[in-house]
Amino acid sequence: MTIPYPNIQPVPAITPVTPPSGAPRPRVTFLGTGYLGATYAICYAELGYEVLGFDVDADKIAKLNAGEVPIHEPGLDELLRRNLAAGRLRFSTDISEVADFGDVHFICVGTPQRADGMGADLSYVEASVTSLAQHLTRKALIVGKSTVPVGTAEWVEQLVGKHTPTDLGVEVAWSPEFLQEGFAVDDVLRPNRIVVGVKTEWANGMLYAAHKGVFDLAATEDREVPLVVTDFATAELVKVAANAFLATKISFINAMAEVCEAAGGDVTQLARAIGYDPRIGNRFLQAGLGFGGACLPKDIRAFQARAQELGAGEALRFLHEVDLINLRRRTRVLQLAADLLGRRSGPAGPDFSGTRIAVLGATFKPNTDDVRDAPALAVAALLAKSGADVHVYDPQGTENARRVAPELTYEASMNDAVTGADLVCVLTEWADFRNADPVVLGELAAGRKVVDGRNCLDSTLWTQAGWEYRGMGRP
Ligand code: UGA
């Protein structure tokens, strides 16, 4: 028997509401068309909603309107073209058009780490909410989706109050998203839960209507999507708590990797063995170069900063360790590289001058072109800083990587990167690298030495092909 969670807060009942535009289903807008907003806009059109996507970046909007997805996300191109053709989906840079069109406005702008500390930069949230609110001429619901410090929804509500006449009755709600890049389409169409933070029955009804497409799809596939209706603060916290948990799980297994390295154990077998316990589970237990991306690293920092402000800093002190364990994995790759190349480390780390190193992977994980806070690119830059001639290949991330780390040499293929290399570092587990033939690569490389930064290669196969192999947390 499962024991239900006690319902601490009285939740508003879901009462059917009529969208203020008079349309049968709420018309939805998405402000910000990055990895989050573009995916949501396109998938919501696929669910049958009338959708308008907004961004201040005219280039991005022109591309989207021309049927071109500005990011790499599997499955999204086809959905974009189909829904543009169906006339359900448009993109605009005109905020007054957005205000006119929408019943429910989803705020999907970025909340990066502040330049001056660990907290989140809310300037994009402020700018998008303010300009939208200033243009609203009828009742609407503004829903935050961006990952934010707890308390932001209340602040957004005040902001909206300041910029809209009270008689319009514009309301605010918060509904965090949990999509993972690389699986984003499915995560939006088939989420494992929907969380909404609301204050009124109207907002709850409106948000229910704005998610009905998701519930209906689930019903046709004989699934259920759990709905958690809660208050603003809890809804905001759910998101950062989930990401903090995932980051902790990854750092836990990477801490075990460190111990395995010292004790001569194999963390991949350890992970498999503990993962069979359903209370632990085997997902997000892949030891390696650690977590990166635009979410996990900055979210655990912003969470600590906010907890500190609230006087609960001690509760999250462990997240500082989670961060440090994660960052230590990058240095570990350098140690393994130095070990394989017979380079000694001085106080400034190893000296790789005179060596050529192939780095396979630049993105923070496979199946994306996203290089934000990518461990692979960070390690490539560290290797170059230590004197190595670094040649990078990534199946999708080269264009973005070149912008972030122009000092590196980028190659058009895996073979080009490996040719003449004294050492190969596999730092993102793209299928192309996992399935690469070590015999073929061995003929191209100058030295058969490989660091498997993601424990994604078949070490037996590579060793048999004459490679000296080093994994993470493996003997
Ligand atoms: C993460 C969360 O997984 C999503 O649920 C959340 O919605 C999203 O952040 C967000 O806040 O928007 P994402 O950043 O796309 O999604 O990437 P993840 O799949 O979580 O991977 C993050 C990093 O952890 C990657 O660098 C990956 O290589 C690394 N990782 C993941 C490991 O090192 N080991 C693992 O076992 C799993």
UniProtKB/TrEMBL annotation:
Q: Which GO terms describe its biological process?
A: polysaccharide biosynthetic process; UDP-glucuronate biosynthetic process
Q: What residues does substrate bind to?
A: 178-181, 239, 284-288, 292, 365
Task: List, alphabetically, the Gene3D superfamilies matched.
Answer: Cytochrome c1, transmembrane anchor, C-terminal (1.20.5.100), NAD(P)-binding Rossmann-like Domain (3.40.50.720)
Against SUPFAM superfamilies, the record matches this protein to: 6-phosphogluconate dehydrogenase C-terminal domain-like (SSF48179), NAD(P)-binding Rossmann-fold domains (SSF51735), UDP-glucose/GDP-mannose dehydrogenase C-terminal domain (SSF52413)
| Alphabetized InterPro entries for the sequence | 6-PGluconate_DH-like_C_sf, NAD(P)-bd_dom_sf, UDP-Glc/GDP-Man, UDP-Glc/GDP-Man_DH_C, UDP-Glc/GDP-Man_DH_C_sf, UDP-Glc/GDP-Man_DH_dimer, UDP-Glc/GDP-Man_DH_N, UDPglc_DH_bac
Pathway it belongs to?
Answer: Nucleotide-sugar biosynthesis; UDP-alpha-D-glucuronate biosynthesis; UDP-alpha-D-glucuronate from UDP-alpha-D-glucose: step 1/1
Picking any one GO molecular function of the record gives: UDP-glucose 6-dehydrogenase activity
Which residue intervals define the domain UDP-glucose/GDP-mannose dehydrogenase C-terminal in the entry? 358-459
EC number, UniProt record? 1.1.1.22
Q: Which Pfam families match?
A: UDPG_MGDP_dh, UDPG_MGDP_dh_C, UDPG_MGDP_dh_N
> Which top-level enzyme class is recorded in the Swiss-Prot or TrEMBL entry?
oxidoreductase
Which catalytic residues are annotated?
295
> Catalytic activity, per the record?
UDP-alpha-D-glucose + 2 NAD(+) + H2O = UDP-alpha-D-glucuronate + 2 NADH + 3 H(+)
Q: Identify the keywords attached in UniProt to this record, alphabetized.
A: NAD, Oxidoreductase
The domain of life is Bacteria
Residues that coordinate or bind NAD(+)? 55, 60, 111, 147, 181, 298, 372
Similarity comment = Belongs to the UDP-glucose/GDP-mannose dehydrogenase family.
Provide the function of this protein: Catalyzes the conversion of UDP-glucose into UDP-glucuronate, one of the precursors of teichuronic acid.
Q: Which PANTHER family match?
A: UDP-GLUCOSE 6-DEHYDROGENASE TUAD (PTHR43750:SF3)
Can you say what this protein is called? UDP-glucose 6-dehydrogenase
UniProt source species: Micromonospora palomenae
Phylogenetic lineage: Bacteria, Bacillati, Actinomycetota, Actinomycetes, Micromonosporales
